[in-house]
Design brief:
Elements (H helix, E strand, L loop, with lengths): L2 H13 L4 H12 L3 E5 L6 H12 L3 E5 L6 H5 E6 L4 E6 L6 E5 L6 H4 L1 H8 L1 E4 L2 E4 L5 E6 L12 H4 L2 E5 L6 H9 L3 H7 L6 H10 L7 H16 L9 H17 L7 H12 L14 H11 L4
Parallel strand pairs: 1-8, 1-9, 2-5, 5-8
Antiparallel strand pairs: 3-4, 6-7
Helix pairs in contact: 1-2, 1-3, 2-12, 11-12, 12-13, 13-14
Length: 305
């Protein structure tokens, strides 16, 4: 079952150079039916990664460029009076796509950001008194700039929790950057990308993820990590039960991407930072560490059963 996944990884890595780890995490996130947040400085490839994954999955795709003047109706859609019928007809917005790229999501106001909450949590939207189902599958891949950038609005904790993983790309190493400078334009490469799998294959892989075997001792390890975040005294609140389930699903997806039918503790460790980092909110005297540093410290403190 890993053939299409290998092809997907190979093609994304031809566009995003030297970032095999974040690319693998992004694919595991989508196989776990999760939404993905990519946070980093402008110009390091956030939008390119999101766009490449979207094209290679072969899904109906919409890109939303978030701005400070965007309104919820610009995302969800609105009812428009049609003279021919003498009635109002709902016109779905760009959110009604299988894969939505929310570019620079933290440049929108909190009111507009909240329009994504129900869609990401329940895969449906409520508009004008009606509840409308979103397509299946439905993913949001969002990018955001660091909060110290001008014109950004912090995502609320409730919205951050809707993202299965948060990734950061960082600057490429010298070899990858030289290849980038001497190689073909990324935009031109993007135009040449063909889907690496059919939508049916993606749905089959997603359905298989929960069936990747997780032994009792592995479940104990996941529970120990979650419990430690609640007991350590470094965070306002620890990880929620939903976060624990997200951690397990991400580890199962990571194992599947690696071609295995059973989860290892190393799989949990590989995805822990991406799943937990944005859900942990340190107390004021603990804010000196980055989310990755907090995650690494937790992994050091919790023994593998």
């Amino acid at each position: 079952m890993t053939g299409p996944v290998d092809g997907l990884l190979d093609r994304v890595n031809q566009v995003i150079l030297g970032k095999e780890g974040p690319v693998r995490l992004a694919v595991a996130c989508l196989l776990a039916r999760g939404h993905l947040l990519i946070e980093d400085l402008p110009g390091v490839g956030k939008t390119t990664l999101a766009h490449a994954v979207a094209r290679l999955l072969g899904l109906e795709f919409q890109r939303l460029q978030f701005t400070s003047d965007m309104l919820p109706a610009d995302i969800i859609g609105a009812s428009i009076f049609e003279r021919a019928t003498g009635s109002f007809v709902f016109h779905p917005g760009p959110l009604f796509a299988q894969l939505v790229l929310a570019d620079e999501v933290n440049r929108a106001t909190p009111k507009t950001q909240s329009a994504l909450l129900e869609a990401m949590g329940e895969r449906q939207v409520s508009a004008e008194g009606d509840t409308r189902a979103l397509p299946e599958p439905f993913f949001v891949i969002a990018t955001q700039n660091p909060l110290n950038q001008v014109g950004t609005f912090a995502l609320p904790e409730s919205q951050l929790d809707r993202f299965h993983m948060r990734l950061s790309l960082g600057f490429p190493d010298a070899r990858a950057e030289r290849e980038l400078l001497q190689g073909e334009d990324r935009g031109e490469l993007m135009k040449e990308l063909e889907p690496a799998m059919e939508p049916g294959q993606l749905v089959d892989l997603q359905a298989h993820v929960p069936h990747v075997h997780a032994a009792e001792a592995l479940i104990d390890y996941v529970q120990s990590l979650v419990a430690h975040t609640r007991q350590t005294g470094r965070f306002r609140t620890g990880l929620s039960p939903r976060a624990g389930l997200a951690l397990l699903r991400a580890a199962q997806a990571w194992a599947l991407v690696d071609g295995r039918d059973a989860v290892l503790p190393e799989d949990v460790q590989a995805v822990f930072g991406a799943v937990a980092g944005h859900r942990l909110h340190p107390l004021p005297d603990e804010e000196g560490r980055t989310p990755d540093e907090h995650a690494d410290l937790i992994l050091e403190e919790v023994a593998i059963p």
